[in-house]
Design a protein that fits this description.
Layout lengths: L3 E6 L10 H15 L6 E8 L1 H12 L7 E5 L15 E9 H11 L3 H16 L8 H17 L16
Parallel strand pairs: 1-2, 2-4
Antiparallel strand pairs: 3-4
Helix pairs in contact: 1-4, 1-5, 3-4, 4-5
C-alpha cells in the first residue's frame, strides 16, 4: 500500500544526515503496517529549530518552552479527511525540533537517527489517536507499541528514556 510522507526542512541549525528522510518514511510505514492501517495515507514531517517549536508549543499547547516533537492529527475517532486528488487519508502533521533531537540523542546515548526515528514513531501513534498524557495503562500501551515498531526497524532500545533520578 502506498503511503506518502512529505518531509520539509525549515531549519539551518542542524545538518540533516543523509538517509534520515528514508528512515522517517520507513518509520511512518512501519507504524501503519503494525497498526494494520488498511488505506493509503499521507503525513507531513517538518524539521524546525528550538525557537520555532517553542513558538508552536506556546501557540497550540500553552507550554512556553521548546519540546522535541509535536503532532497535529487531522483525524478524530478513526475518521480522516481524504485528499481529493489522491484518495489517501490525511493523518496530519509532525514537527520535530532537530536541535532538541541532537540534545536528547546525547543525553540518552544513542544516535541522532535513533532519536528522530523514535520521535517520528511516537508522533505517528499520536496521529492515529494514541495518547500517553494521562499516564497509566494507555501510556504503557503506547510505549510498548513504539518499542515494537523501533525493534522492527532494527533500532531496539539499548538505554532508558529517563535521566538518572527521573521518574519513568
Amino acid at each position: 500500500m502506498a503511503h506518502k510522507v512529505y518531509i520539509t526542512n525549515q531549519q539551518k541549525t542542524v545538518k540533516v544526515p543523509s538517509g534520515l528522510r528514508i528512515l522517517i518514511r520507513r518509520s511512518c510505514n512501519a507504524v501503519l503496517e503494525l497498526e494494520h492501517f488498511g488505506q493509503p495515507a499521507e503525513v507531513s514531517v517538518t524539521f524546525v529549530d528550538n525557537a520555532e517549536i517553542e513558538r508552536l508549543n506556546t501557540q497550540y499547547r500553552s507550554h512556553p518552552n521548546p519540546t522535541d516533537v509535536l503532532s497535529f492529527p487531522l483525524g478524530q475517532d478513526g475518521q480522516y479527511d481524504k485528499n481529493p486528488e489522491t484518495g489517501a487519508v490525511m493523518l496530519g502533521d509532525i514537527v520535530i525540533s532537530m536541535e532538541k533531537a541532537v540534545e536528547q540523542a546525547a543525553i540518552y546515548g544513542h544516535t541522532l537517527q535513533r532519536e528522530v526515528a523514535f520521535l517520528t514513531v511516537h508522533a505517528m501513534y499520536h496521529l492515529l489517536g494514541y495518547d500517553h498524557e494521562a499516564g497509566g495503562i494507555e501510556a504503557v500501551h503506547m510505549r510498548e507499541k513504539e518499542e515494537t515498531t523501533l525493534t522492527k526497524l532494527g533500532l531496539p532500545r539499548t538505554v532508558s528514556y529517563t535521566r538518572p533520578g527521573e521518574e519513568p
